[in-house]
Amino acid sequence: MVKYTEIMIRYGELSTKGKNRKDFIAKLASNVNRVLSDFPMVEIHPKHDRMHIVLNDAPFEEINNRLKKVFGIQTYSPVIKTEKTLEAIEKTSLELMEAIYQTGMTFKVNTKRADHKFEYDTNQLNSMVGDHIFDHIPDIKAEMKHPDLVLRIEVRQDAVYISNQLLHGAGGMPVGTAGKAVMMLSGGIDSPVASYLALKRGVEIEMVHFFSPPYTTEKALAKAKELTGILANYAGKINFIAVPFAEIQETIKEKLPEGYLMTVQRRFMLRLADIIRKKRGGLAIFNGESVGQVASQTLESMTAINDVTTTPVLRPVVTMDKTEIIALAEKIGTFDLSIEPFEDCCTIFAPPRPKTKPKLDKAREYEARLDVEGLIERALAGIQITQIRANQKFLDVSSSEDTDLL
Ligand code: ATP
Ligand code: MG
After folding, report:
1. What is the dihedral sign for C-alpha 374, 378, 379, 383?
2. Where a domain ends, among 168, 195, 211?
């Protein structure tokens, strides 16, 4: 096994300079620190153009699993920090190659120099280190185009960093650099994917979830919370705001024509999300809508629903096909949970034939028959906020609530 001493992180989309760059790096460092907080021996050194994580014997594999999910990291490499002398470079390079070489493998040496004053240039280093390896691993062959092993040598100001791996990070921007927003999270496939994409752009999100006991079960609520737990892998802890929605749905169903049940329900959801956003200092509302997917997601429906607010309503999956959304849901680990059949509030109160082209004036007119303010006030009074950490479980725990239901 190779014993790496550090992980060297290359930053993501860092076109911005000055203060923004500083904020980016500081936020990334604190996000990395958070996901590695149970490794007290690890040291994090955020520098201007690279971040170094000194392992101090912490296990690389486990740390790697966490880093993969931190936004703002473009690429990273586990490295062995080496003295800036030819002897040291050759020695470390050979030890690394001996640890990973298997009979028949090809290799090449790839040197980069940030310190242009170093006594050897990249070509010289490539050939000298290459020769040293040929001398000690006689069967190994060089291959420039598609080598099995690439020995990467980075000559920097403070030291030389040697690695055989260049790993892809999650990309995007560190969570928290783009401000705060609320995310309308259902138990479906789309909104968890939209959440992931919002986080990827650096937006810190709080989940707003509508639930309708007794029409929806504890399981449906637990499912949305558990989905939040999966997304917390990418964000740290996420606040989950559960909003009781049954009274609003019952009232709408009782008083309004069936064709407008869905539109008016959605107007209430958006209104509530917006009030919560404002109270919590958010700047935008995210949801998982995709154009044309269902009746509530036609452009006409969006117009009739979006009417209740001027706050930006951002829809990260708006142009994606269902198959593309599913592929991403599988990649981020939410898909299997999303397809569990615990029906949420919308499925239960969905009219059989919702209007795909609702009229804005009609929606307003019908809605005016209701005590909008009172309904909103009572829903807000019933809000419950839970802070959810990465991979926290809610469905399989044998809590008393769960057993009551069985
Ligand atoms: P999803 O897979 O995200 O549920 P969907 O394609 O099933 O989306 P809808 O159920 O019509 O579509 O919901 C559209 C969007 O409205 C969701 O992506 C989500 O952002 C929001 N939404 C729907 N139901 C809820 C809910 N119970 N709580 C919070 N937001 C919801
Ligand atoms: Mg849904």
Report:
1. positive
2. 168
DSSP characters over 257-289? -GGGHHHHHHHHHHHHHHHHHHHTT--EEE---
Give the number of whichever ligand sits closest to the CA of residue 215. Answer: 1
Shared domain for 362 and 217, answered yes or no, is yes
Determine how β-strand 141-142 pairs with β-strand 106-113: parallel
Distance from the CA of 259 to the center of ligand 1, in angstroms? 19
What is the per-residue pLDDT across 109-156, written as a single tens digit (0 to 9) for each? 999 999 999 999 999 999 999 999 999 998 999 999 999 999 999 999
Residue located nearest, by CA, to atom 24 of ligand 1: 186
Interval 246-276: pLDDT, tens = 999 999 999 999 999 999 999 999 999 999 9
Q: How far is the CA of 169 from the centre of ligand 1 (A)?
A: 29
Per the annotation, does 104 bind a ligand? Answer: no
The answer to whether residue 397 scores a pLDDT higher than 90 is no
Domain limits for position 63: 6-168
Residue written as tokens 């007119």?
365
Which pLDDT band holds residue 401 (cuts at 50, 70, 90)?
very low
With respect to residue 292, please indicate whether it lies within any of the assigned structural domains. yes
| Domain-located, residue 175 | no
Domain count, the chain: 2
Where residue 117 sits, what CATH number does that domain have?
Answer: 3.30.2130.30
- 47: three-class secondary structure by DSSP: coil
Query: Atom 10 of ligand 1 has which residue's CA nearest to it?
Result: 346
Q: In terms of residues, how long is the chain?
A: 406
- Residue 179 marked ligand-binding: no
Counting Cβ atoms within 10 Å, is residue 172 exposed (0-12), middle (13-18) or buried (19+)?
buried
CATH value at residue 356:
3.40.50.620
Within a domain: 234: yes
Q: Considering every ligand atom shown, identify the ligand nearest to the alpha carbon of residue 344 and give its number.
A: 1
Q: What's the pLDDT at 276?
A: 98
Write out residues with Cβ below 6 Å of ligand 1: 184-186, 188-191, 208-210, 287-289, 293-294, 296, 344-346
- Dihedral, CA of residue 344, residue 345, residue 350 and residue 355, to nearest 10: -110
Q: How remote is the CA of residue 365 from the centroid of ligand 1, in Å?
A: 25
Work out which ligand 1 atom sits closest to the CA atom of 189: 2
Reported pTM: 0.91
Looking at the structure, tell me whether residues 161 and 274 fall in a common domain: no
My answer on whether 109 and 225 are in the same domain is no
Residue 343: the pLDDT is: 79
Residue 257 counted as domain residue: yes
Please identify, by atom number, the ligand 1 atom nearest to the C-alpha of residue 338: 2
